[in-house]
Amino acid sequence: MLTALLATVAPSQVRAQESADLSPLAHGSGETASPAALTVNETISFDLASLTPEKKPETELPDSVGPSIVVDTDSPAVIDPDRYRSLGNRMAAAKWETLGLFAYITATQAYWTDDTTSFHFKDEGWFGKNTNNLGIDKLTHAFNAYLFAEFLGARIARKTGDRAAAALPAALLSTALQFYGELWDGHKSDSGFSYQDIAFNTAGAAFSVLRHTVPGLEEKLDFRLMMVPNSNVYSFKGKRHYEQQHFLLSLELAGFRKLEATPLRLVELQVGYRGKDFTLADRAAGIPPKRDIFFGVALNIKHLFFRNSRSRVSRMIGSGLNYFQLPYTGLYDYY
Q1: For a tag site, which of 2, 78, 200, 265 has the least CB within 10 Å?
Q2: Which domain holds residue 78?
Q3: What is the mean pLDDT of residues 23-51?
Protein backbone atom coordinates (compact mmCIF):
# COMPACT_ATOMS: atom_id res chain seq x y z
CA MET A 1 0.00 0.00 0.00
CA LEU A 2 2.82 2.40 0.92
CA THR A 3 4.55 1.68 -2.41
CA ALA A 4 1.41 2.60 -4.31
CA LEU A 5 1.08 5.86 -2.39
CA LEU A 6 4.68 6.89 -3.03
CA ALA A 7 4.53 5.94 -6.69
CA THR A 8 1.59 8.29 -7.12
CA VAL A 9 2.80 11.16 -4.96
CA ALA A 10 6.29 11.16 -6.48
CA PRO A 11 5.45 13.02 -9.71
CA SER A 12 3.71 15.81 -7.83
CA GLN A 13 6.93 16.63 -6.02
CA VAL A 14 8.65 17.72 -9.22
CA ARG A 15 5.92 19.93 -10.65
CA ALA A 16 6.69 23.59 -11.21
CA GLN A 17 4.72 26.23 -9.39
CA GLU A 18 3.82 27.82 -12.73
CA SER A 19 1.02 29.89 -11.30
CA ALA A 20 3.10 31.36 -8.47
CA ASP A 21 4.01 35.04 -8.53
CA LEU A 22 7.83 35.09 -8.55
CA SER A 23 8.21 38.84 -8.83
CA PRO A 24 10.37 40.55 -6.19
CA LEU A 25 8.85 42.78 -3.56
CA ALA A 26 8.42 46.20 -5.10
CA HIS A 27 5.96 49.03 -5.59
CA GLY A 28 4.10 49.11 -8.86
CA SER A 29 5.96 52.22 -9.94
CA GLY A 30 9.33 50.50 -9.60
CA GLU A 31 10.52 53.17 -7.15
CA THR A 32 11.76 52.36 -3.68
CA ALA A 33 9.90 54.07 -0.89
CA SER A 34 11.73 55.45 2.07
CA PRO A 35 10.70 54.35 5.57
CA ALA A 36 9.30 57.81 6.19
CA ALA A 37 7.00 57.50 3.21
CA LEU A 38 5.31 54.38 4.53
CA THR A 39 1.93 54.89 6.16
CA VAL A 40 -0.23 52.67 8.31
CA ASN A 41 -2.32 51.86 5.22
CA GLU A 42 0.68 50.40 3.35
CA THR A 43 1.78 46.81 3.85
CA ILE A 44 4.87 44.92 2.80
CA SER A 45 3.90 41.52 1.45
CA PHE A 46 5.86 38.37 2.21
CA ASP A 47 5.84 36.19 -0.89
CA LEU A 48 7.06 32.72 0.01
CA ALA A 49 7.19 31.74 -3.66
CA SER A 50 9.73 34.47 -4.40
CA LEU A 51 12.12 32.77 -1.95
CA THR A 52 11.74 29.39 -3.64
CA PRO A 53 14.20 28.12 -6.28
CA GLU A 54 12.77 27.79 -9.76
CA LYS A 55 12.17 24.25 -10.89
CA LYS A 56 14.43 23.04 -13.66
CA PRO A 57 12.50 21.52 -16.58
CA GLU A 58 12.65 17.75 -16.70
CA THR A 59 13.04 15.74 -19.88
CA GLU A 60 11.91 12.36 -21.06
CA LEU A 61 14.07 9.57 -19.76
CA PRO A 62 16.17 7.61 -22.28
CA ASP A 63 15.03 4.15 -23.29
CA SER A 64 17.99 2.58 -21.51
CA VAL A 65 16.64 3.71 -18.14
CA GLY A 66 13.32 1.94 -18.52
CA PRO A 67 9.83 2.80 -19.75
CA SER A 68 9.50 6.23 -21.33
CA ILE A 69 8.42 8.60 -18.54
CA VAL A 70 7.95 12.33 -18.79
CA VAL A 71 8.53 13.71 -15.31
CA ASP A 72 7.53 17.31 -15.78
CA THR A 73 3.92 16.30 -16.38
CA ASP A 74 1.70 14.24 -14.14
CA SER A 75 -1.44 14.96 -16.12
CA PRO A 76 -2.86 13.68 -19.41
CA ALA A 77 -1.83 15.36 -22.65
CA VAL A 78 -5.33 16.78 -23.13
CA ILE A 79 -7.13 18.36 -20.17
CA ASP A 80 -10.70 19.57 -20.29
CA PRO A 81 -10.84 22.39 -17.70
CA ASP A 82 -14.64 22.51 -17.80
CA ARG A 83 -14.92 18.85 -16.79
CA TYR A 84 -13.26 19.42 -13.42
CA ARG A 85 -14.47 22.93 -12.70
CA SER A 86 -16.75 21.94 -9.80
CA LEU A 87 -15.61 20.56 -6.45
CA GLY A 88 -17.73 17.43 -6.93
CA ASN A 89 -16.14 16.64 -10.28
CA ARG A 90 -12.66 17.06 -8.85
CA MET A 91 -13.53 14.66 -6.04
CA ALA A 92 -14.92 12.19 -8.59
CA ALA A 93 -11.58 12.30 -10.41
CA ALA A 94 -10.18 10.09 -7.63
CA LYS A 95 -13.17 7.79 -7.17
CA TRP A 96 -11.27 4.55 -7.83
CA GLU A 97 -8.39 5.54 -5.58
CA THR A 98 -10.89 6.47 -2.87
CA LEU A 99 -12.60 3.10 -3.21
CA GLY A 100 -9.22 1.42 -2.95
CA LEU A 101 -8.45 3.26 0.30
CA PHE A 102 -11.94 2.42 1.55
CA ALA A 103 -11.22 -1.27 0.96
CA TYR A 104 -7.81 -0.92 2.62
CA ILE A 105 -9.32 0.66 5.75
CA THR A 106 -12.02 -2.00 5.88
CA ALA A 107 -9.50 -4.83 5.61
CA THR A 108 -7.10 -3.44 8.20
CA GLN A 109 -9.83 -2.52 10.66
CA ALA A 110 -11.40 -5.96 10.35
CA TYR A 111 -8.01 -7.60 10.92
CA TRP A 112 -7.11 -5.59 14.03
CA THR A 113 -10.58 -5.53 15.61
CA ASP A 114 -11.03 -8.11 18.37
CA ASP A 115 -13.87 -7.60 20.84
CA THR A 116 -16.77 -5.46 19.67
CA THR A 117 -19.71 -3.84 21.42
CA SER A 118 -22.52 -1.43 20.60
CA PHE A 119 -21.57 1.94 19.16
CA HIS A 120 -20.33 4.34 21.82
CA PHE A 121 -18.33 7.52 22.29
CA LYS A 122 -15.14 7.84 24.30
CA ASP A 123 -13.33 10.90 25.59
CA GLU A 124 -9.70 9.90 25.06
CA GLY A 125 -8.12 13.19 26.07
CA TRP A 126 -5.32 14.92 24.22
CA PHE A 127 -1.66 14.82 25.31
CA GLY A 128 -1.94 14.47 29.07
CA LYS A 129 0.15 12.03 31.10
CA ASN A 130 -3.06 10.30 32.14
CA THR A 131 -3.99 9.48 28.53
CA ASN A 132 -3.37 5.99 27.16
CA ASN A 133 -0.74 6.97 24.59
CA LEU A 134 0.31 10.52 25.51
CA GLY A 135 -1.25 11.88 22.32
CA ILE A 136 0.89 9.81 19.94
CA ASP A 137 -2.26 8.12 18.67
CA LYS A 138 -3.72 11.55 17.87
CA LEU A 139 -0.70 12.49 15.77
CA THR A 140 -1.01 9.11 14.04
CA HIS A 141 -4.53 10.08 13.01
CA ALA A 142 -3.28 13.42 11.70
CA PHE A 143 -0.45 11.81 9.75
CA ASN A 144 -2.68 9.16 8.17
CA ALA A 145 -5.18 11.80 7.05
CA TYR A 146 -2.33 13.91 5.71
CA LEU A 147 -0.85 11.00 3.78
CA PHE A 148 -4.22 10.05 2.27
CA ALA A 149 -4.81 13.67 1.24
CA GLU A 150 -1.38 13.87 -0.40
CA PHE A 151 -2.00 10.65 -2.35
CA LEU A 152 -5.49 11.60 -3.50
CA GLY A 153 -4.38 15.13 -4.35
CA ALA A 154 -1.66 13.80 -6.61
CA ARG A 155 -4.15 11.52 -8.36
CA ILE A 156 -6.66 14.32 -8.88
CA ALA A 157 -3.93 16.62 -10.21
CA ARG A 158 -3.01 14.03 -12.85
CA LYS A 159 -6.42 14.56 -14.41
CA THR A 160 -6.99 18.26 -13.70
CA GLY A 161 -3.46 19.59 -14.16
CA ASP A 162 -3.82 21.79 -11.07
CA ARG A 163 -2.29 20.56 -7.81
CA ALA A 164 -3.50 23.52 -5.77
CA ALA A 165 -7.11 23.04 -6.90
CA ALA A 166 -6.82 19.34 -6.09
CA ALA A 167 -5.87 20.00 -2.45
CA LEU A 168 -9.35 20.71 -1.03
CA PRO A 169 -11.24 17.82 -2.68
CA ALA A 170 -8.43 15.46 -1.66
CA ALA A 171 -8.63 16.67 1.94
CA LEU A 172 -12.40 16.22 2.02
CA LEU A 173 -12.09 12.66 0.72
CA SER A 174 -9.33 11.90 3.21
CA THR A 175 -11.40 13.26 6.10
CA ALA A 176 -14.39 11.18 5.02
CA LEU A 177 -12.25 8.02 4.86
CA GLN A 178 -10.84 8.67 8.31
CA PHE A 179 -14.36 9.29 9.62
CA TYR A 180 -15.31 5.87 8.29
CA GLY A 181 -12.37 4.33 10.13
CA GLU A 182 -13.47 6.09 13.31
CA LEU A 183 -16.88 4.45 13.01
CA TRP A 184 -15.08 1.12 13.42
CA ASP A 185 -13.45 2.43 16.59
CA GLY A 186 -16.91 3.29 17.90
CA HIS A 187 -17.71 -0.43 18.01
CA LYS A 188 -14.48 -1.59 19.67
CA SER A 189 -14.74 -2.53 23.32
CA ASP A 190 -11.27 -1.12 24.08
CA SER A 191 -11.86 2.12 22.19
CA GLY A 192 -14.73 4.33 21.04
CA PHE A 193 -15.73 7.09 18.68
CA SER A 194 -13.46 9.96 19.71
CA TYR A 195 -13.96 13.61 18.79
CA GLN A 196 -10.25 14.11 19.52
CA ASP A 197 -9.45 11.69 16.70
CA ILE A 198 -11.84 13.54 14.39
CA ALA A 199 -10.13 16.83 15.22
CA PHE A 200 -6.68 15.50 14.36
CA ASN A 201 -7.94 13.79 11.20
CA THR A 202 -9.20 17.17 10.06
CA ALA A 203 -5.98 18.92 11.06
CA GLY A 204 -3.83 16.48 9.09
CA ALA A 205 -5.90 16.87 5.93
CA ALA A 206 -5.99 20.66 6.39
CA PHE A 207 -2.19 20.80 6.54
CA SER A 208 -2.05 19.12 3.14
CA VAL A 209 -4.33 21.86 1.78
CA LEU A 210 -2.11 24.55 3.30
CA ARG A 211 1.05 22.98 1.90
CA HIS A 212 -0.23 22.97 -1.68
CA THR A 213 -2.17 26.24 -1.77
CA VAL A 214 0.49 28.52 -0.29
CA PRO A 215 3.02 29.02 -3.13
CA GLY A 216 6.50 27.91 -2.14
CA LEU A 217 5.47 26.09 1.06
CA GLU A 218 5.57 22.59 -0.45
CA GLU A 219 9.29 22.93 -1.18
CA LYS A 220 10.07 24.07 2.35
CA LEU A 221 7.93 22.33 4.96
CA ASP A 222 7.19 18.63 5.46
CA PHE A 223 5.17 16.70 8.03
CA ARG A 224 7.03 13.44 8.67
CA LEU A 225 7.05 10.26 10.71
CA MET A 226 10.30 8.83 12.05
CA MET A 227 10.16 5.23 13.26
CA VAL A 228 12.95 4.63 15.79
CA PRO A 229 13.91 0.94 16.16
CA ASN A 230 13.41 -0.68 19.56
CA SER A 231 14.74 -3.91 21.05
CA ASN A 232 12.51 -5.86 18.65
CA VAL A 233 13.52 -3.56 15.78
CA TYR A 234 9.84 -2.99 14.93
CA SER A 235 6.61 -3.46 16.88
CA PHE A 236 3.51 -3.82 14.73
CA LYS A 237 0.89 -2.71 17.25
CA GLY A 238 0.26 -1.56 20.80
CA LYS A 239 2.05 0.94 22.99
CA ARG A 240 5.49 -0.28 21.97
CA HIS A 241 4.58 0.66 18.42
CA TYR A 242 3.48 4.12 19.51
CA GLU A 243 6.73 4.59 21.42
CA GLN A 244 8.64 4.15 18.18
CA GLN A 245 6.77 6.95 16.46
CA HIS A 246 8.36 10.38 16.39
CA PHE A 247 6.33 12.99 14.51
CA LEU A 248 8.06 16.09 13.25
CA LEU A 249 7.91 19.16 11.04
CA SER A 250 10.97 19.60 8.85
CA LEU A 251 12.09 22.88 7.28
CA GLU A 252 14.24 22.23 4.19
CA LEU A 253 16.80 24.98 3.63
CA ALA A 254 17.14 23.72 0.06
CA GLY A 255 13.70 25.20 -0.52
CA PHE A 256 15.08 28.74 -0.22
CA ARG A 257 16.50 30.31 -3.36
CA LYS A 258 19.44 32.03 -1.67
CA LEU A 259 20.55 28.77 -0.04
CA GLU A 260 20.11 26.31 -2.92
CA ALA A 261 23.72 26.72 -4.10
CA THR A 262 25.29 26.66 -0.63
CA PRO A 263 26.17 23.74 1.67
CA LEU A 264 23.16 24.72 3.79
CA ARG A 265 20.94 23.13 1.12
CA LEU A 266 21.78 19.79 2.76
CA VAL A 267 20.47 20.94 6.16
CA GLU A 268 16.98 20.56 7.61
CA LEU A 269 15.72 22.19 10.80
CA GLN A 270 13.23 20.04 12.66
CA VAL A 271 10.87 20.13 15.62
CA GLY A 272 8.82 17.19 16.81
CA TYR A 273 7.10 15.26 19.57
CA ARG A 274 7.49 11.81 21.11
CA GLY A 275 6.26 9.85 24.13
CA LYS A 276 7.98 7.11 26.09
CA ASP A 277 7.66 4.96 29.20
CA PHE A 278 3.86 4.69 28.97
CA THR A 279 3.43 0.95 28.47
CA LEU A 280 1.34 -0.95 31.02
CA ALA A 281 4.51 -2.50 32.44
CA ASP A 282 6.12 0.94 32.85
CA ARG A 283 3.08 2.34 34.64
CA ALA A 284 2.82 -0.74 36.90
CA ALA A 285 6.48 -0.29 37.84
CA GLY A 286 5.83 3.32 38.80
CA ILE A 287 7.89 4.77 35.95
CA PRO A 288 6.46 8.20 35.10
CA PRO A 289 5.46 8.67 31.44
CA LYS A 290 7.62 11.09 29.47
CA ARG A 291 6.45 13.55 26.84
CA ASP A 292 9.22 15.23 24.89
CA ILE A 293 9.33 18.06 22.39
CA PHE A 294 12.55 17.80 20.45
CA PHE A 295 14.54 20.11 18.21
CA GLY A 296 17.15 19.00 15.77
CA VAL A 297 19.31 19.46 12.72
CA ALA A 298 19.13 16.71 10.09
CA LEU A 299 20.78 15.82 6.81
CA ASN A 300 18.66 16.28 3.71
CA ILE A 301 19.02 12.74 2.34
CA LYS A 302 16.57 13.41 -0.46
CA HIS A 303 18.56 16.36 -1.78
CA LEU A 304 21.87 14.59 -1.31
CA PHE A 305 21.08 11.32 -3.10
CA PHE A 306 17.78 11.66 -4.99
CA ARG A 307 17.67 15.26 -6.22
CA ASN A 308 18.02 14.41 -9.92
CA SER A 309 16.84 10.82 -9.83
CA ARG A 310 16.30 9.27 -13.26
CA SER A 311 14.75 5.95 -12.35
CA ARG A 312 11.21 5.41 -11.15
CA VAL A 313 12.39 3.58 -8.01
CA SER A 314 14.75 6.40 -7.05
CA ARG A 315 12.02 8.99 -7.50
CA MET A 316 9.71 6.91 -5.32
CA ILE A 317 12.33 6.79 -2.59
CA GLY A 318 12.97 10.52 -2.90
CA SER A 319 9.24 11.20 -2.64
CA GLY A 320 8.96 8.93 0.39
CA LEU A 321 11.55 11.03 2.18
CA ASN A 322 9.06 13.91 2.12
CA TYR A 323 6.91 11.87 4.49
CA PHE A 324 9.25 9.53 6.38
CA GLN A 325 12.37 10.58 8.25
CA LEU A 326 15.21 8.07 8.33
CA PRO A 327 16.35 7.47 11.93
CA TYR A 328 19.91 8.38 12.90
CA THR A 329 20.21 11.04 10.19
CA GLY A 330 19.87 13.97 12.58
CA LEU A 331 20.99 15.32 15.95
CA TYR A 332 18.17 16.02 18.42
CA ASP A 333 17.78 17.62 21.81
CA TYR A 334 14.78 16.52 23.87
CA TYR A 335 12.90 18.70 26.36
Answers
A1: 78
A2: 2-334
A3: 48
Q: What is the 3 state secondary structure string of 156-217?
A: HHHHHCCHHHHHHHHHHHHHHHHHHHHHHHCCECCCCECHHHHHHHHHHHHHHHHHHHCCCC
Q: What is the spatial distance between Cα 240 and Cα 331, in angstroms, rounded to a whole number?
A: 23
Going by pLDDT thresholds of 50, 70 and 90, the confidence category of residue 179 is very high
Q: Which residues pair with 226 in a beta bridge?
A: 246
What element of type H or E holds 252?
A: strand 245-252
- Helix (H/G/I), strand (E/B), else coil: 312: helix
Vertex 206: Cα angle to 98 and 151 (nearest 5): 35
Would you say the pTM of this structure is higher than 0.85?
no
How many separate domains does the chain show? 1
pLDDT tens digits, 86-124: 999 999 999 999 999 999 999 999 998 888 999 999 999
DSSP letter (8 states) at residue 328: T
For residue 57, give Cα distances in angstroms to 15, 33, 66, 70: 9, 36, 20, 10
- What are the pLDDT digits (tens) for 274-318? 999 999 999 999 999 999 999 999 999 999 999 888 888 999 999
Report phi then psi at 32, rounded to 5: -95, 125
Distance CA 91, CA 176 (A): 12
Residue 190's contacts (CB-CB under 8 Å, 6 or more residues apart) are 114, 115
Query: Environment class of residue 180 by beta-carbon count within 10 Å: exposed (0-12), middle (13-18) or buried (19+)?
Result: middle
